[in-house]
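Quick one, probably user error.
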């Protein structure tokens, strides 16, 4: 079966700095993959490449079997047009550390905006779908609140509803709980966990080691722009092979 995400020999540079130095991994349909590793190892950059928020210079990313970000013309890599970028970006649903909701809009309008503007859905249909997902994340009662009237955990749940309502092939979570007060972390992790249990394909960058161990089918450990080790959580967490991962787990548990 075609993987939902396939990353082949991905390289990314910021100026002189090699941030991703040849990344290979796949995500099958319904799989939950957690990316762990020290700060600065390239986790966020990798996720941003999957969402086309970063250009990459070498290697290939396929979402649902489609190469994203560029096409080959007469043997040359050619960056695709913005309209095409927008279409391909919508194949993945990104949830950011800082929520990134539109502050002047209600929770409901934050969710309907992409549906009406990007998907061209009639407003009534978009509201119905938005209500479904707001209910799913436990935010239906607050659908008319603006972000400033919501807690961080509630804002993040709206952000999850907004991303998932667009029906992406895969959800990408970039440290979705890092900006939350400790007492709000659990409610967001529970939301993510329940979506995972329903079979949503996901890639999570996370510092929540226990959560990664519980929820993931596969864990990817990054070290200085490379994947140092990947495999099932039981193996990585209980029997880490590389000394780097052993050291990392000691400091982060
Ligand atoms: P992680 O998510 O593992 O903490 P990042 O992907 O955020 O790592 O960053 C990896 C490296 O890339 C770091 O050295 C960081 O400083 C650098 N980096 C990230 N974004 C940029 C950028 N926009 N411009 C220059 N350097 C960047």
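Nope, works fine. Designed sequence:
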């Amino acid at each position: 079966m075609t993987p939902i995400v396939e990353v082949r020999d991905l390289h990314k540079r910021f100026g002189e700095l090699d941030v991703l130095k040849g990344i290979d991994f796949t995500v099958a349909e319904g799989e939950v993959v957690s990316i762990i590793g020290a700060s600065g190892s390239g986790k966020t950059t990798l996720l941003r490449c999957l969402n086309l928020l970063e250009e990459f210079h070498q290697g290939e990313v396929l979402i649902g079997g489609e190469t994203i970000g560029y096409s080959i013309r007469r043997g040359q890599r050619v960056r695709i047009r913005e309209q095409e970028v927008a279409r391909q970006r919508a194949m993945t649903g990104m949830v950011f550390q800082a929520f990134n909701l539109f502050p002047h809009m209600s929770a409901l309008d934050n969710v309907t905006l992409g549906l009406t503007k990007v998907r061209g859905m009639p407003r009534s249909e978009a509201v119905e779908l938005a209500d479904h997902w707001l209910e799913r994340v436990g935010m239906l009662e607050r659908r008319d609140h603006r972000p400033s009237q919501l807690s961080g955990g509630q804002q993040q749940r709206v952000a999850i509803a907004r991303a998932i309502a667009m029906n992406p092939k895969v959800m990408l979570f970039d440290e979705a709980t890092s900006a939350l007060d400790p007492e709000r972390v659990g409610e967001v992790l529970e939301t993510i966990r329940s979506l995972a249990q329903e079979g949503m394909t996901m890639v999570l960058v996370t510092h929540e080691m226990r959560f990664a161990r519980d929820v993931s089918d596969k864990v990817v450990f990054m070290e200085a722009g490379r994947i140092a080790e990947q495999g099932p959580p039981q193996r990585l967490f209980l029997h880490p092979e590389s000394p780097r991962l052993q050291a990392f787990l000691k400091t982060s548990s």
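The longest helix spans residues 182-197.
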